[in-house]
Task: structure prediction
Amino acid sequence: MNHLQRRNILNDIMLTVTGVCTFLTVSVLFLILGFLVYNGWRSVDWSFFTRLPLSPGEAGGGMANAIVGSAVLILIAALIGIPVGFMGGVYLSEFGGRTVPMIVRYTADLLNGVPSIVIGIFAWTVIVVPTHHFSAWAGGFALSLMMIPIGLRATEQFLRAVPNSLREASLALGASKTRTVMSVVVPAAKQGILTGMILGIARVAGETAPLLFTSLNNQYWANTLSEPTASLPVMIYTHAISPYDDWHRQAWAAGLVLLVLVLIANVASRWVLSRGVSAQRG
Amino acid sequence: MGTAVVSAPPRSSERKATELWRSGDQITHLVTLIFAGSVFVVTVLLVYELWIHSGPSRAKFGFHFLTGTTWDPVSAQFGALPFVYGTVLTSFLALLISVPLGVGAAIFLSELAPPRLSNACTFLVELLAAVPSVIFGLLAIFTLVPILRQYVEPFLKDTLGFLPWFQGPAYGVGYLAAGLILAIMTFPFIISISREALLAVPREQREAALALGATKWESTWQVVVPFARLGIIGSIFLALARALGETMAVTMVIGNDTGIHSSLLAPGYTIAAIIANEFTEATGDVYLSALVELGLVLFGLTMVLNGAAQLLIIATTGKGSKQD
Result:
């Protein structure tokens, strides 16, 4: 009896401990949000979105150039990353044999695991070194490399989940394979693919390390895609490590805006996916 | 089942049309193959470029690069050991905290929590994984570091100061701060993957243990967790690879000191952090290529860990699905 009691007490203790672990880990997200809102919300005003950063000591100013710069970088990344991810995923799921897809899948996983700073070095060697200047192109290219594996694996995974009977029905009606894939298989998986693409964009939107020596930073507007371009994450970094209080406030505000955007994108992608699942069941 | 379709042999008038369809398919096949192949080409190119651009440094220092302890841009002497040390130490510290927390939470979410709560919590944890690393850095600089400097580090020195790991002035920034922030950044990976591995354990395993009179905890700890151990270890490897390659948050709190210190309270450096800090300021071929070589070392480290993690995760989830 004594032994049983001991086992039961241990049971209760350990189960409580795992509950505490869960509570601690989940509460971190709310702590982060809370700190950002507390420190940042006062600085998120109209001028934050419409004005350029000011030199330290001057109160006010904004991050308009960084917001536009981030949008431009993400657009370049999406224009490269989404087609490659999507078409590559179609190949892996629909056209590939055995060996080639295996190699591509393996290298995509490899690419996915490459530290973001190393991606930055790579983009620097292939774009910044030959063109001799930091540019939005280099930054966008670096971000696209981080987006491709996510889009590729998501496309493949959701295409594979499409039942074969759909393909066979289309082929039996005399449709070509291309037609079958584009009109039957891809539409059946579109929610999942869309989710993957949104997640890819959300992931690169907050990336800083690949931009440090590709798009660099800029206190002013970038007029072309071939010059250093400001971005929100790099602005947060440079403002946070600076010794000026005004800049710290701007960093908090930028952090809050960036986090809210990333979280919205993540929640939206889940919502798209859950709608897809319920539509298929219904 | 395969997608093979048996079609009647086409008559000669139809053959032309069929071939046209086929050639259309071949174009699609080719185009998609090019896109898929580009992923392979880019990855190979990445390794090639790192190798080429680290050439001057590899030629000058050889394998001594990995064991050298001086990092002196002025006299062009470069050794990677302080950074490898800092990277490994901070990642190890991170895992020391995030593994028990993460596995504990994964056990709660897979074994105890009702499905709705479990899904909600997992969703929140996955959102945490999506928080950009620069935001972790921002919070670490302005909240974690002051707390460490004012309360935690003086306390550690007072109570455990006789140990070599807790000596020296309390700066706030340093190995300990970096390890803590990495712990927070890695446990989402451990939780979500370990939870999957635990959920893949067949129900019969739990029922058998409970039927033999085991308590809930005994069935979990002695049956379910060992069954899912490969997946859990895989998640730890993956978290370790993340921690090694993590740049921004660590760069902001590591303290930027190129020495090797035994004290966790001392400022240090990691591979990713020194690349981030010095790359744009590096002058001279050897200096730049030494930084690229550091990138190559980091790449190698994370690749080995990622590969191992993938194998382990495939091994468990494959095993789990077969027995279902």
Notes: Chain A touches chain B through 93 residues (CB under 8 Å). The domain at 63-281 of chain A is CATH 1.10.3720.10 (MetI-like fold). Chain A has eleven helices and no strands.
